[in-house]
């Protein structure tokens, strides 16, 4: 089985590499050879070798249950051996359906996105769909190219997580104009009239800040992401609401806005430690920047949680590995991925008996560990 392979897509002024995952749904056969090679293997070549009809081969490659397992295995093994590459675009034109879903994420290396992708892949397979993944690398330009590419590939629907810097979403309009289902999850456009799946980011920000206050913190700093993004607006709003409820003064100088990477988190920590007054708490809008703060504090001889208590967001693996272990907000990436696919498939199938939730919000929970003085 070939999975997670990168396929170059050529277009006008573009050479874009995107990931194809498990297209079949349980078999994906892809051998990337010389793109100028015109000696293409067809299902008729496979059929002739095995003494089967072309329709039987086609069904076997699609794992049709009407074809017995032995025949399916023989066809699929020979397809790999002969370097058969299915023409999905031609097939989708014939069927008026590709059984492929597009997925745009900022980076697959992000822990939350990797867990969401696992949920997406699992749920898509259940419904007989395959996933093509494109990374925007947090750039609006690449996001636009990916939207154009997926529209050209005639995907049946598109799942998208916007870049941190996307403020204008007009480049998604080809999907909207042509009634191709589009679902945003996690990072979503503000006031988007379509379908969105998010975590309760306001509540997450509130819970994290409230916890620090209840642990005795009176001067709480906040690492915020870029505030054009819905996530970080809501987490900041939750932080402010908790301060207000417990009558802790809001100090704008304690809010550090950056891209929440390890480097940015460490640089912000150095700024904090260079100041005249050390905060006694930090709520970071992701775990990476919180981990960077803890590491920088250790270098400076500042003790966590004795001097500064810290809460992150996302429940990354790093939150469990760092010492002291990091208190954080769990936001259920895997379940969010499953829900995003379920919503998209219902829109594709246009099942009027099923009521699709327009703006679905997942509950979040605080996970208390050592960094906040458990």
UniProtKB/TrEMBL annotation:
It comes from the Bacteria. Residues 41-95 form the HTH lacI-type domain. Keywords: DNA-binding, Transcription, Transcription regulation. The keyword Amino-acid biosynthesis does not apply. Pfam families: LacI, Peripla_BP_3. InterPro entries: HTH_LacI, LacI/GalR-like_sensor, Lambda_DNA-bd_dom_sf, Peripla_BP_I. SMART domains: HTH_LACI. Gene3D superfamilies: 3.40.50.2300, lambda repressor-like DNA-binding domains. The keyword DNA-binding applies. This is LacI family transcriptional regulator. The lineage of its organism: Bacteria, Pseudomonadati, Bacteroidota, Chitinophagia, Chitinophagales.
